[in-house]
Amino acid sequence: MAERQVYSIKELNRYIRMKLDSDTLLSDVWIRGEISNFTHHGSGHMYFTLKDESSRIKAIMFASHNQRLPFVPKEGTKVIARGNVTVYERDGQYQFYATHMQPDGIGSLYMAYEQLKQKLEQEGLFAAERKRPLPRFPRCVGVVTSPTGAAVRDIIITLQRRYPQVPVVLYPVLVQGKGAAPSIVKAIETLNAMGEADVLIVGRGGGSLEELWAFNEEPVARAIAASRIPVISAVGHETDFTIADFAADLRAATPTAAAELAVPLAAELAAQLRTAEERLRHALTRRAQRGGERLAALRRSLALAGPSRQLAQHAQRLDMLRAGLSRAAQMRHRSARERLAVQHHSLQRFHPRSSVNAARRQAESLQRELTAAMQTVLAGKRSRYVAELRHLDALSPLKVMSRGYSLVYDEQEEHLIKSLQEVNLGDLVNIKLSDGQLSCQVWGIKEDGKTDGEGNGA
Known about the structure:
Blueprint: H1 9-21, H2 24-27, E1 29-40, E2 46-51, E3 56-61, H3 63-66, E4 78-88, E5 93-103, H4 106-122, E6 141-145, H5 150-162, E7 168-172, H6 180-194, E8 199-204, H7 218-226, E9 231-235, H8 243-247, E10 250-251, H9 255-262, H10 266-300, H11 302-305, H12 307-349, H13 352-395, H14 397-401, E11 407-409, E12 428-433, E13 436-441
Parallel strand pairs: 3-5, 6-7, 6-8, 8-9, 9-10
Antiparallel strand pairs: 1-2, 1-4, 2-3, 4-5, 11-12, 12-13
């Protein structure tokens, strides 16, 4: 009996995945269903379930694919999705991997329209302050529409009828279908790069919501808003608005109305010119009449009737003014001279020589007073000195010694001996007299009422 082969779960799931991936139907399939269990992960991937009345399948749409969605999927939204079916090996569960998705039916299209409108409005793409005025007299009109529809014929006929001198640049585009939006975006960008047109008409004839859907796509709205040239949206429907209508600088209900808004009516301009010409002619006529009347009045005036008399009057007035000027100059000169004399006299009083002489006289007076004061002080000091000298002389020991007294000092003449207790027998002493000095030796000491052992005196 042959040995049976046993597979792991991983191997089995991989085998099933390879079988599904090789199936041509499951590798590119369209399915219709309602979204449930919708989750928009932080990574950008969308996880949800597609279901109908009797079955369901898990689905995933990676961020690289869902960034191009024209609407935001929500719970309960009915969609048509394109993708492939394969197995997620880890869980052993087959899943639908969506690469494209669109709303299913008119209701879903309207929901996508409302979502995009709200998004762009929040960004300020429809703000009134972004709208630019159209040129009053455009030098060139650019038209972005289908080259075969009725819209282009209506636009060109209206432009030629109203303003035949303006050139028209037609950029043919697709206005419905899968490639319509990129075609319109490229046309707007190209006409901006060319820089010939002063205003752009972007639109098409009427149609259903699906047929007009290219003008509800986000790239078209952003291209219109980014255009440096003012844009007129001309989608052929009078009651409903497309996203392009909100993004444009001006919205027209029909292509014909857009052409009427883009250029002025030449007949009206001609009438305005004729009216302006007539008004200018009348104004010039009135001005010429007023000039003639003024000239006639001047001719009748005294100035032109007798110019010699006018000149004589002016000459007399000139002489009077000259005489008055001369008198005024003389008076001004006299006044200036008197003022100069007063100022000179004032300056003489403050001349430095006078100040120096006065200071010198004051210094000499002060010097005499100082000398007298010093002599008085010196005389007083001299008298006091003589008196003090007499007093000191009276108190001087020499004065006393002149009457027979003497002073006894020790041998070094440093100490005055005042008592017998300060000397001993044999000490040498110095005796100062009024007229000299004696050097002596003590041979004996005798106190008052007493004698020494030898009974001798000094």
